[in-house]
Amino acid sequence: MSGPEGTGPGAGLVPAMARPGSEIAERMMLAALVALLAASGCSGDSSPAPGSTPGPVPVLSVSPDNLVFAGQTGNVTPVSLPLSVANTGGGTLSWTASDNAAWLSVSPGNDTAPSTLTVSIVVAGLAAGTYNGAVTIVSAGATGSPGVVPVTLTVTDSPPAPVLSVTPGILSFTGQAGGGNPAPQSLSVANSGGGTLSWTASDNAAWLSAAPAGGTAPSTLTVSVDAAGLAAGAYNGAVTIASAGATGSPGVIPVTLTVTNAPTVWPQISITTVVSGVLSGFTRPVHVTHAGDGSGRIFVVEQAGRIRILDNGVVLPTPFLDITSRVASTGEQGLLSVAFPPGYPAKMYFYVYYTPVPGDNTVVARYRVTADNNIADSTSETIVLRVPQPFGNHNGGQLAFGPDGYLYIGKGDGGGGGDPLNSGQRTDTLLGKILRIDVESGAATYAIPPDNPFRGVAGGGEIWALGLRNPWRFSFDRGTGDLYVGDVGQGTFEEIDFQPAGDNVGRNYGWNIMEGGSCYPPGTVGCDQTGLALPVFAYDHSLGCSVTGGYVYRGAAFPSLQGVYLFGDYCSGRIWGLRRNGAAWDNALLLSPAWNISTFGEDEEGNVYVANHANGDLGMVVVP
């Protein structure tokens, strides 16, 4: 029994128009049943119906299949590398990534393919060696999961760091107010460590410049100053050399510039011929001096082995001394100088420097004067000092008594290009030195003064100064006692060296570490100048080839020359003036006669003479 319409079981579930047994009613009831099942969360059997095809499965693909890194100790970390994650199957592939080493990291930690993750290495704290790890990519349900990518890290020791070295450690310039700029100077940049050292240069003063602005060691930069517009005074600046990562960086080099007031106008000089070589018979004169006996006589040494006397303008016909038979006089050899001791009139003996036949040594000898004050006894020779000479050149040759009464002797380095025996820097040889001995103490030959700087050094007690190549001519300023040395250079520079009175520290004038103010041999970078006394004046071989040291003018006849050190060049004939200006030195080219200037000389009144080796002329320097 159905009951009234709209009542009974199921009322409201089946629409009124759906009647049992109708096709429409069956379909509607099926749809309602499905909806009820869905609402209740019951999906029924998920198995595919018999004969149906399952969906595609994701396939995990990771490339490359291994990673290799190389790093260095000291936090030199290698560049990160990528891993590519792909799905070569179907559907969607989601993945997660992990690593198994503290030095290994991946990012991001998860994503959906296709995608890329980055593998990074941290070398900090790792010693040199080989390390193995892995990155694992996991994708649930994917074929090929997990994907394990081996990671190898090789850590090597870092090379030594570069070490910045800049020499010299300080630069000093001297200029004149309203005058020309001083010559540029060089800084040498070197790497005393490992690796490559690149550097940059900067300065901190408007008057200061350094070029180039950068480079790679070893290299040289030029430092220049511009004194234009600067008043007299002292200026301080610095050049800074910087090299990222290098030990010793930055290297700060102090630069001092002393600007002096321009000196008074240099005197105009000329040479008045005292004796013409053609008429007088002077042949190859090499030394001019006086006896300090009040006689006014001038003694002229001839290279062949004779000493001539100029007395009141007349050359005496008989030589004061003639030892030509025992003197080797070719090239730079010969009878090279004479020196009269303090108190000569009461002693009546003197000293000479010469190279005896066959020329394999040099000799300092003493001779006595006969009853005739103008003639010495050539048979009275007493050898004071004999020094072996390994080569035929660089014999030195100067003798002079200093203000202290000791005999100073100029010794060349023994010859041979570049000082092959390193004589200039050794203290076990007398070559390449200025010696200082006591020949007036009554000892059989000589004694070593108690304050000689190398007294007690085996083979070097006589040494007063070292680092000389061929100190052909030196002299003492009779007004101050200062020592001036003209040291003949090798192939590039000639120099004047200076030692103030009272300084007995054993000065090292640099040869063969330096030639002039530059490292030797030419092109050398960064030579060690520690403890060296650099020249107060140097000139290159565009101006001459062989310096001839001279004298400080202390005569009364020409006041404008007072205190000027006169010196010249054998090859070019140029004559310069050099004068101290406070802590600086002024210099000027004063005259260029066509002379082969072999020597300067001095008479008792302080007048300065100059000799022409080529024709025997003897002249006096005068101010017209």
Q: Name the CATH superfamily assignment of the largest domain.
A: TolB, C-terminal domain
Determine the number of helices (DSSP H or I, runs of at least 4 residues): 3
Biggest sheet details: 5 strands, mixed
What is the share of helical residues?
under 10%
Structural domain tally: 3
Gross CATH architecture of the largest domain: 6 Propeller
The order of strands across the largest sheet is 2-9-8-4-6
CATH classification, class level of the largest domain = Mainly Beta
Explain this structure:
- The chain is mainly beta and 624 residues long.
- It is 4% helix and 41% strand.
- The chain has a five-stranded mixed sheet, with no helix packed on it.
- Strand 22 (306-311) and strand 23 form a beta hairpin.
- The chain is elongated and about 140 Å long.
Short summary of the structure?
With 624 residues, this protein is mainly beta. Strand 43 (597-602) and strand 44 (608-612) form a beta hairpin.
